[in-house]
Design goal:
The chain contains four helices and nine strands. It has one domain (2-101): OB fold (Dihydrolipoamide Acetyltransferase, E2P). The two termini are 19 Å apart. The chain is of the alpha+beta class and 119 residues long. It is globular and about 35 Å long. It has helices at residues 23-29, 76-79, 83-86, 111-118; strands spanning 2-3, 8-13, 16-21, 32-36, 43-44, 49-55, 59-63, 68-73, 95-99. The longest helix has 8 residues, at 111-118. A hairpin with a 2-residue loop joins strand 2 (8-13) and strand 3 (16-21).
Length: 119
């Protein structure tokens, strides 16, 4: 698993990468009440806004961590956004994407570097 400084996680799943937010981000946002996901087939560039999240505390955007194409979205989150609070690094992935350049993941933070960022 790799991490961004914006508190997103990426997990390779074959030739796809699942993307979600970390437990730290889910805790900071509080209870989620609304989630708007991108459509499958959407081409994104790093730092494009791809997910809109609203919680009892704040509204926030999730940015594309890398360049690629969204190939699948986790529609169960639309009906049950609180799943992000319950299982942020597991069942609550937001989308899966096919990266334009899979080696770009090498530039992201590993778990130790992400934990150091939080300290």
């Amino acid at each position: 698993m790799k991490f961004t400084e914006e508190h997103e996680w990426l997990r390779a799943d074959g030739d796809l990468v699942a993307v979600g937010i970390t437990e730290h981000a889910a805790t900071a946002l509080g209870d989620l009440v609304f989630l708007e996901l991108p459509e499958a087939g959407t081409k994104v560039a790093k730092d494009d806004e791809v997910v809109v999240i609203e919680s009892v505390k704040a509204a926030s955007d999730i940015l594309a961590p890398l360049d690629g194409e969204i190939v699948e979205v986790n529609v169960s989150l639309v009906d049950n956004p609180t799943l992000v609070n319950e299982d942020p690094t597991g069942a609550a992935w937001f989308f899966k994407m096919k990266l334009d350049n899979p080696s770009d993941m090498d530039d992201l933070l590993d778990e130790a570097a992400y934990k150091a960022l939080l300290d």
